[in-house]
Design a protein that fits this description.
five-stranded mixed sheet; Nucleotidyltransferase, domain 5; 2 domains; 20 strands; alpha/beta; Gyrase A, domain 2
Length: 501
């Protein structure tokens, strides 16, 4: 992984936007920004319909612009989802995780689903509050697995609206204590409003409008934004406070202008600013030379560099897909160790032969010497040499047998075939061979049964195998949530072996 590069990918219903950031001595540099259209066949009603197709679109876009894909974060694409500020009772104490789980049980849209969630404790001296995000894991896992499988390594999942806030936080929100700040993030037909009081996150409201911003829905978006201010004025008696409004991520400049004008008409005493790719830098420390980036995509990449306030960070990456990715980093370590050990055996044979010859020569020379030592000392020395020679002969016999096995089984070719055919989300933890039976057993972990079954079929088609079969699969008893497997491979002898098929 290249820790100096981070790629943020914001996925919308009509387009994908990318922002590649680089960490330098001078700060964070925007090195590349790109976009590509999507279609309803890939994303519909706020959910991903075809994860494999979307992953391929992302991969092709990254390849086209020569972007590194080893450190990537995606925007959350899942409905229903949850993003809100939640009050905690004072007596929760350190058991915040249990409080969050209990809260999610009361959220009806998640009933019967596996819910992925994350939270961050908010800085607020007046109350115990936290930022809570959640979504159906099944709607996230597909795109993560599909991307990881083709080399787009996903490190995190975060709501695009939260990322957009991060992108403008240092420049427009931090240390502003004389105004309430409302950031309205508009993407597709979703509107998310964030309110900051005294520089701290205070309120979030997410709304789904009938359709994306267009002349017919501009009024609906405007009314939702104005209603948030009215809530503060009527319910919280915040009439005296100044307000500043920031609008992010409206794809059409024409629609952006229309929303701004509509808000200005309804809020004549307040300042309204557009925060769009063409007129905002992602952060005051970012160097943007002749380039512009989607604030949400840039904010996502900033998350991987741990930029922005700690209380505005969530990661909804499913634990199962994160564990599966960790298998990739383990890779074929066991196979490489086996290969290194075998090479050590091959090199050790001539070395041991040489040492054995030295021992034998030294013993013979000592016996022929004219000035023989006393008999007791001579017998002791001879016994030492005999014992050492026997040990070396035994070691040579073992190593020679292993060396002869190489003449019948091409271990190097087997390791190459395993490395070429193993899926990304399958791990090998143990590899054993039985040369006398021409069999090999592979043991390890996998993210899903489908992937280990595919690995078995691929090995069965390999030229180094007569056949391959799964002899055992079960849920990993150590509690990783992964699948434990044992695979038996009947090996094909080398072509010059008389037993070869």
């Amino acid at each position: 992984m290249n820790n100096k590069l981070a790629l943020g990918i914001n996925i919308g219903s009509d387009q994908i936007t990318l922002a590649m950031l680089k960490k330098t001595r001078k700060g964070i540099t925007l090195v590349k920004a790109a976009s590509s259209p999507t279609s309803e066949s890939v994303i519909s009603a706020g959910n991903i319909k075809n994860p494999a197709q979307l992953a391929r679109m992302i991969k092709d876009l990254c390849s086209k612009h020569k972007l590194n894909t080893s450190n990537v974060i995606l925007s959350l694409v899942a409905r229903p989802s949850l993003l809100r500020v939640t009050d905690m009772p004072r007596d929760v104490g350190g058991n915040v995780k249990q409080f969050v789980k209990d809260e999610l049980k009361h959220y009806a849209p998640f009933a019967g689903k596996t819910v992925g969630h994350d939270f961050a404790i908010l800085k607020n001296a007046k109350a115990n509050r936290l930022l809570l995000g959640a979504a159906d894991e099944d709607k996230i896992a597909g795109i993560v697995k599909a991307c990881n499988r083709i080399g787009v390594i996903i490190r995190g999942i975060e709501p695009a609206s939260l990322a957009a806030v991060r992108a403008i936080y240092a420049k427009h929100i931090a240390k502003k204590f004389d105004s309430n700040i409302l950031v309205a993030h508009v993407q597709d037909n979703s509107l998310t409003c964030f309110v900051f009081r005294d520089g701290l996150l205070d309120f979030i409201k997410a709304t789904t409008i009938s359709s994306p911003v267009n002349p017919d829905t501009i009024q609906a978006f405007t009314d939702e934004i104005v209603s948030v201010k009215q809530y503060y004025q009527l319910e919280l008696n915040q009439n005296a406070k100044n307000w500043e409004f920031f609008i992010t991520d409206i794809n059409s400049a024409q629609n952006s202008d229309a929303v701004i004008k509509s808000l200005q008409a309804h809020l004549p005493q307040n300042r309204v600013y557009p925060c769009l790719p063409q007129n905002v830098q992602a952060d005051t420390s970012m160097i943007c030379s002749n380039m512009s980036a989607d604030p949400a995509a840039a904010g996502l990449a900033m998350r991987l560099f741990d930029l922005g306030p700690a209380e505005l960070k969530l990661n909804l990456l499913p634990a199962s897909t994160d564990d599966a990715h960790n298998l990739q980093k383990f890779g074929l370590v066991m196979a490489n160790v086996a290969a290194a050990a075998f090479l050590a055996v091959l090199f050790a044979v001539p070395v041991l032969k040489s040492k054995l010859q030295i021992v034998q020569d030294a013993t013979a020379k000592q016996l022929k010497a004219s000035d023989l030592p006393p008999m007791e000392k001579l017998l002791t020395t001879q016994n030492q040499h005999t014992s050492r020679a026997k040990y070396l002969k035994d070691q040579l016999t073992v190593l020679t047998s292993l060396s002869m096995a190489q003449l019948e089984i091409d271990y190097a070719q087997i390791l190459r075939e395993v490395q070429h055919r193993i899926p990304r989300n399958v791990q090998i933890t143990k590899m054993t061979t039985q040369p006398e039976n021409f069999t090999m057993t592979l043991s390890g972990l996998a993210a899903t049964y489908e992937e280990v079954n595919m690995f078995t079929k691929l090995m069965a088609r390999s030229p180094v195998a007569r056949s391959a079969s799964l002899i055992k699969t079960e849920v990993d008893p150590t509690g990783t949530g992964l699948l434990s497997y044992n695979m038996l491979i009947n090996l094909a002898p080398m072509e010059n072996d008389p037993n070869a098929r």
